[in-house]
Design brief:
There is one protein chain. With about 375 residues, the protein is of the alpha+beta class. The chain folds into 2 domains: about 90 residues, Pdz3 Domain; about 200 residues, 2-enoyl-CoA Hydratase, Chain A, domain 1. Helix content is about 30%, strand content about 30%. α9 runs parallel beside α10. The protein is globular, with a radius of gyration of 22 Å.
């Protein structure tokens, strides 16, 4: 079974607490209260537990449990000390060193290094294992604690010790603001342009349309959109891109907890060239609906692997103590009214990859012309009439 890399990348890069959301942040219109029963229990534990208890830890644990009791895999709780990182993720910018990690027994496995970030410039590579930060071992340390060691004020230095091929290496680098590269474009062969969209958070529309425009200037006559490992983001960013790509019609349908509903539509202006969308099991939420809309208009075919199936959206409510909770407050469906929750999208052309290739695609270390799914997309553009 493939490793689910994206949720585990939360550590140093501070990927959001739960990924793949079409999220809105606001304060709740009801007073936050733990209720008499929970307050009574907290007071009892604080007063009577022989080894002592921490009030913040108790409240965070209770909040996690309450959200978990909903039985909804998309709702989430954000502790106060993680809320700033959550907002940084949504803004596609954070202060750090530019690595994505997965926790392992021997330390933190580096699965992705941001191009031109401090870690990249210093020489840290994917597959390195971080074992110490400023001389302090992180072996066995939860990612959240390790994150706090790595993070710090901008323009301050941090030393990272990694294990590479059995040898310990140390790198010193300066923390700085790292901007997530939201969308990129590259020409492949025979006039085929590849547009990779990392997420649909802040600035996605501008970055994506710039990538498309540059490829068209270079002579692109067909496009491949890569939304593999795209965890979703803001509805507005996705809808604006679809509006520029698709002809007049419905783009997206939303149904709120109040019973109200809304429909986003596009105008007649569109881009009429053959398109393919690459998807996999970490194409979530907005990434799924982006792909679904293009297919339902017969504007593109889908290549890759089955998606996860997320049909709920979340609103993030800031609580009185500075923590927050993301609650599924609505459902959304495709232009044709299809609910993807728990179902996902099945590609028109299924191309599975092994675990090693999967990891390289995520890390961005695989040459596009050695990527089986991209090669299948190129072949589809050459042999299939789209649209």
């Amino acid at each position: 079974m493939k490793k689910i890399l994206l949720p585990l990348s939360y550590g140093l890069v501070i990927i959001a607490t739960v990924l793949g959301t079409l999220t809105f942040v606001q304060k709740p219109d009801v007073q936050s209260s733990s209720g008499y029963k929970l307050q009574e229990l907290e007071n009892l534990l604080l007063d009577r537990f022989v080894d002592g208890a921490d009030s913040t830890q108790l409240q965070d644990a209770a909040a996690h449990a309450m959200v978990g009791a909903l039985g909804d895999r998309w709702s989430y709780y954000i502790p106060k000390d993680q809320y700033a990182a959550y907002l940084e993720n949504k803004n596609n910018s954070y202060v750090g060193i530019g690595v994505t990690i997965e926790q392992k027994e021997q330390g933190y496995l580096v699965v992705k290094v941001s191009q031109d970030g401090p870690a990249d410039i210093a020489g840290i590579l994917p597959e390195d294992v971080i074992v110490a930060v400023d001389g302090q071992s992180v072996v066995g340390m939860p990612v959240e604690e390790g994150r706090e060691l790595v993070r710090g004020p901008e323009d301050t230095q941090v030393s990272i010790t990694v294990l590479r091929d059995g040898q310990e290496l140390s790198f010193t680098m300066t923390r700085r603001t790292v901007a997530t590269v939201v969308a990129t474009g590259v020409m492949l062969e025979d006039g085929i342009g590849l547009v990779t969209i990392s997420n649909f958070n802040a600035n996605c529309y501008n970055a994506t349309m710039h990538a498309i425009e540059e490829l068209l200037k270079e002579g692109a006559t067909a496009l491949i959109f890569d939304v593999r490992f795209n965890g979703g983001g803001y509805k507005k960013e996705m809808v604006n891109i679809l509006d520029d790509l698709l002809p007049e019609g419905v783009l997206f349908r939303s149904e709120y907890y109040t019973g109200d509903s809304s429909v986003d539509k596009s105008d007649a202006d569109c881009l009429e060239i053959p398109m393919v969308v690459l998807i996999n099991d970490q194409s979530i939420s907005a990434a799924e609906f982006f792909a679904a809309a293009l297919r339902e208009y017969d504007w593109a075919i889908l290549v890759g692997e089955q998606t996860i199936g997320k049909g709920h959206y979340q609103e993030a409510y800031l609580l009185s103590d500075g923590s927050a909770v993301g609650v599924s407050t609505g459902r959304y469906t495709t232009p044709n009214g299809v609910d993807l929750e728990g179902v996902g999208l099945t590609p028109d052309i299924i191309v599975e990859v092994d675990e090693e290739t999967y990891a390289k695609i995520y890390a961005g270390t695989l040459d596009p012309m050695e990527d089986p799914q991209i090669l299948a997309a190129i072949n589809a553009l050459k042999t299939t009439k789209i649209p």
